[in-house]
Design goal:
Residues 131-154 are annotated as: Disordered. This protein has helices at residues 2-89, 209-221, 226-256, and strands at 102-104, 112-118, 121-127, 155-163, 168-176, 179-188. It is of the alpha+beta class. The protein has a six-stranded antiparallel sheet. Strand 5 and strand 6 form a beta hairpin. Helix 1 (2-89) packs antiparallel against helix 3.
């Protein structure tokens, strides 16, 4: 009888303890499952954040590059409009009546070519872009002869006079306002090999003064005179402006491509 009571008391103590243990175990499992879910969710959130944030870095870089290009395009377009307005104001007059040369002007090139025939001669003139002088002239900034050429706008020219595909005379000129200076004079022979160095004569300024005047007259008769070069000066200034606008538009096309 005493033994039976002991067994019953022991059982009554063991059963509640077992229930508490099982409950705690289930609760632990529930908490563990919830904790695991939280960790997984946070991990997924972290991965999603990384996925979302990583492309945005490249997107930001791309946006900055695009923004930089757009700013450059705006500046170029503003410069185009300014240059076009300037061209409209500086529009050159039509070729004057009696102009002795045919003008060959190809867009995109630095030079303009003039051609004409004169008493069996072929005259070819290469006109270069003007060397412009802006600002106030310094009265003391003259050369040794007291000339003011250093303060004047000018255009370089190369004049070739040839006969029957033989040797030709080549003049290097600088045209100022109402004045033409002969810088060089040489004889060019097409039959002379390129590796041969031909004698080109003395400096033109070292020639006898009468000989210098005679060559100036020689060119004047063939159409190289101040009335011709003054028009060419205005023509080349206008060409310089047009070429600049074309250059800007080509830049714009490249940036936009």
């Amino acid at each position: 009888m005493a033994v039976t009571n002991i067994i019953r008391r022991t059982a009554s103590q063991v059963v509640p303890f077992a229930v508490r243990v099982v409950g705690r175990t289930q609760n632990y499992r529930h908490q563990s499952s919830a904790l695991f879910s939280t960790v997984v969710n946070r991990s997924a959130t972290s991965r999603n954040f990384f996925r979302n944030s990583t492309p945005s870095t490249f997107h930001c870089y791309s946006t900055k590059k695009a923004s930089s290009d757009e700013s450059l395009l705006k500046v170029i377009q503003a410069e185009i409009l300014c240059a076009e307005e300037s061209d409209e104001q500086d529009e050159v007059e039509e070729v004057p009546e009696g102009f002795p040369f045919k003008i060959e002007d190809n867009p995109g090139q630095q030079t303009v070519r003039l051609t004409r025939g004169y008493q069996g001669e072929s005259i070819d003139v290469e006109v270069h872009m003007p060397d412009l002088v802006t600002g106030d002239e310094d009265e003391n900034d003259n050369d040794a002869d007291g000339s003011e050429r250093a303060n004047q706008s000018q255009i370089p020219l190369v004049v070739r006079v040839s006969k029957n595909n033989g040797p030709s005379l080549e003049f290097g000129l600088t045209a100022f306002a109402d004045e033409i200076a002969i810088d060089t004079l040489s004889i060019k022979d097409a039959n002379v090999a390129e590796d041969q160095i031909a004698y080109e004569g003395p400096d033109f300024s070292d020639l006898d003064e009468n000989l210098q005047k005679a060559f100036h007259k020689y060119l004047e008769i063939r159409g190289i005179k101040p009335s011709t070069t003054n028009f060419l000066h205005e023509y080349m200034i206008n060409k310089d402006g047009k070429e600049y606008v074309m250059w800007l538009k080509n830049l714009k096309k490249f940036i936009e491509a």
